[in-house]
Amino acid sequence: MRKVGRPRDQTARREALVSAAGRAIAERGLEALRIKDIAEAAGVSQGSVLYYYPELDDLVLEVHRGAVEGYLASRQQAYDAAPADDPAARLRALLDSGLPSLTDDPVHGLLYELHRRAGRSPGHAELMASLFAREVALYTTALAVGAATGGFTLAAAAADLAHGLVALEDGYGLHIVSRNAALRPDRARELLLAHARTVTGRADL
């Protein structure tokens, strides 16, 4: 009788390699990344990495996709967890979820590192643009709902203000992970909240 081999969970193995590659990128940086580093982080052979991802760029793209989706999910969760009848609380939760909490914040550090590929790779550029657009959509919803319920008096169109808030987050976040001593996480949060107060007319944000 012919023996049937044990089924191999291809998805789980790919996910493990993506996770290991993310850790390796965070530790070594994108330019210094090697197949050997990913194999060591995953506890497998280099051959196993190449079996699932013959091209390193394909694996890095999966890391970027996973980082984007995980980050967006955490932001949506923060927004949804705030009281639905309190637009200021919901906007504050969204603002709090957008900045690195530490100079070595692993999520933001990984995203900024991966975004560097956008100039040379259409796939990475698409992920970066998608992240920005979806963050803008989150803020647009928060601002528009707040205005519609009388909680905010917006200084401009909700979508325009949302673009500004995301751009501010990105700029402040880059300085934080770059260890700019003049812009610590608490100072960046204070500045972002001050801007939000101005554009929403809510002094209690």
UniProtKB/TrEMBL annotation:
<dbReference type="InterPro" id="IPR001647">
    <property type="entry name" value="HTH_TetR"/>
</dbReference>
<keyword id="KW-0804">Transcription</keyword>
<dbReference type="InterPro" id="IPR050109">
    <property type="entry name" value="HTH-type_TetR-like_transc_reg"/>
</dbReference>
<dbReference type="InterPro" id="IPR039538">
    <property type="entry name" value="BetI_C"/>
</dbReference>
<dbReference type="Pfam" id="PF13977">
    <property type="entry name" value="TetR_C_6"/>
</dbReference>
<dbReference type="Pfam" id="PF00440">
    <property type="entry name" value="TetR_N"/>
</dbReference>
<dbReference type="InterPro" id="IPR009057">
    <property type="entry name" value="Homeodomain-like_sf"/>
</dbReference>
<keyword id="KW-0238">DNA-binding</keyword>
<feature type="domain" description="HTH tetR-type">
    <location>
        <begin position="11"/>
        <end position="71"/>
    </location>
</feature>
<feature type="DNA-binding region" description="H-T-H motif">
    <location>
        <begin position="34"/>
        <end position="53"/>
    </location>
</feature>
<keyword id="KW-0678">Repressor</keyword>
<keyword id="KW-0805">Transcription regulation</keyword>
<protein>
    <submittedName>
        <fullName>TetR/AcrR family transcriptional regulator</fullName>
    </submittedName>
</protein>
<dbReference type="InterPro" id="IPR036271">
    <property type="entry name" value="Tet_transcr_reg_TetR-rel_C_sf"/>
</dbReference>
